[in-house]
UniProtKB/TrEMBL annotation:
Name of this chain's protein: Blue light sensor protein
InterPro entries recorded: Acylphosphatase-like_dom_sf, BLUF_domain
Any Pfam family hit: BLUF
Domain BLUF: 2-95
């Protein structure tokens, strides 16, 4: 069975050192997610993170525990957690949207739609993340 965890959080990274902060997260995440066979994407807008993780229920629960107690972000708001029928991502990637005001604005808009309108906007946001993630691979 496959589980997913999809959440939004607010960054507490030092605004002057976000590149280093993101780099540190990625360095730990890539090998750990690979060994847990967890795939997904992390997107950072400069203020907010949104992350989609998919894998075995045990692996998702383990990562959720680690990520939830991480002081580098706060106000973690789960938008989807639980069984899901297929993987949406091929690997784990980082879709970094910080430097692009256009992308950041689009993501912020999608995040508010999820918070305001709920379920039907969740898949739209996940698809947006998938689009960025594929670009991130090429
Ligand atoms: C926004 C954000 C996303 C993260 N994503 C992952 C991730 O996908 N995989 C991962 O192993 N760690 C991720 N981390 C790091 C974990 O929170 C944690 O520091 C790391 O996995 C080590 O776990 P531990 O503190 O339980 O030893 C993330 C941290 C933040 C702030």
């Amino acid at each position: 069975m496959l589980h997913r965890w999809f959440y939004i959080s607010t960054s507490r990274l030092d605004a002057r050192k976000t590149n280093e902060g993101i780099q540190e997260i990625v360095e730990v995440s890539l090998p750990r997610n690979r060994s847990l066979r967890v795939t997904g994407a992390l997107l950072f807008t400069g203020q907010k993170f949104t992350q989609y993780l998919e894998g075995s229920p045990a692996a998702i629960a383990e990562l959720k525990q680690s990520i939830s107690r991480d002081a580098r972000h706060e106000a973690i708001h789960t938008i989807a957690y639980g069984p899901f029928d297929h993987r949406r991502f091929l690997g784990w990637s980082l879709a970094y949207a910080g430097p692009s005001r256009f992308v950041a604005a689009k993501v912020e808009k999608a995040l508010s739609a999820v918070l305001d309108q709920g379920d039907e906007e969740i898949e739209a946001l996940a698809e947006m993340l998938a689009g960025f993630a594929i670009e991130g691979h090429s």
